[in-house]
Amino acid sequence: MKNEEKDRLRREFLARRQAMKEQEVQIKSRAIQTRVEALLREQGARTVMSYVSVRNEVRTQALIRSLLAEGIVVAVPLCVPERLELVPCRMENLEDDLEEGHFGIPEPKENKRQPLPLEELEAIIVPGVAFDRCGYRLGHGSGYYDLFLRRLPDGIAKIGLAYDWQVVAEVPRSDHDVPVDLVVTETEVIAVGPGVGA
After folding, report:
1. Using alpha carbons only, how large is the chain's radius of gyration in Å?
2. What are the structural domains of the chain?
3. Partner of 2 at 20 to 30 A CA spacing, among 57, 120, 172, 175?
4. 52 in Cβ contact with 62 (< 8 Å)
5. What is the 3-state secondary structure (H, E, C) of 117-176?
6. Alpha-carbon distances of 100 from 7, 51, 59, 86, 87, rounded to whole Å
């Protein structure tokens, strides 16, 4: 029953996201970017992993460029399907280092892959179809991020990006789901992790 509820919610939210107008995506993504940058500065994060946005997700390309310009080390995920694994790979140039990968998501070109140990990461920018106020997320259903988040060492800030309407009262969850510490929308920062912002 829980999986059916997840599937229903996923279909509903993906359809709504796909229906968003480009201008709305850009305006809301800019507001979210401003909040994320302020948070990362506050935390002093110098090594950040971020998803590369597609299909009306909260845009991350401008955020990535901005972090690189500040001298922050940025990693993006490389998808390894045979192990259902995400590998953080350092990226130096958004335009030159990426090509279309699995699921149509940009990922590092073969000759540009510089894997980073998980221990070096200080913050992870996490995508989601929906989040709740306890930090639990509904993903696309492939399981990559669920497994990845479970492998992270303690102390790495997990930051979910969402439009206001993607925040729901409760996301259907399983025992093994890992919540994010913060959910950032265009109007608020929802802090749910222990000691976040301290």
Report:
1. 16
2. 2-191 (3.40.50.10420)
3. 57
4. no
5. CHHHCCEEEECCCEEECCCCEECCCCCHHHHHHHHCCCCCEEEEECCHHHEECCCCCCCC
6. 26, 13, 16, 15, 16
- Give the helix/strand (H/E) hosting 38: helix 22-43
* Identity at 145, one-letter amino acid code: Y
Q: pTM of this prediction?
A: 0.92
Q: 122, 45 in Cβ contact below 8 A?
A: yes
Pairing assessment for the beta strands 157-161 and 123-126 based on DSSP bridges: parallel
Q: What is the mean pLDDT of residues 10-21?
A: 96
pLDDT in tens, 22-62: 999 999 999 999 999 999 999 999 999 999 999 999 999 99
Q: What DSSP state is assigned to residue 85?
A: E
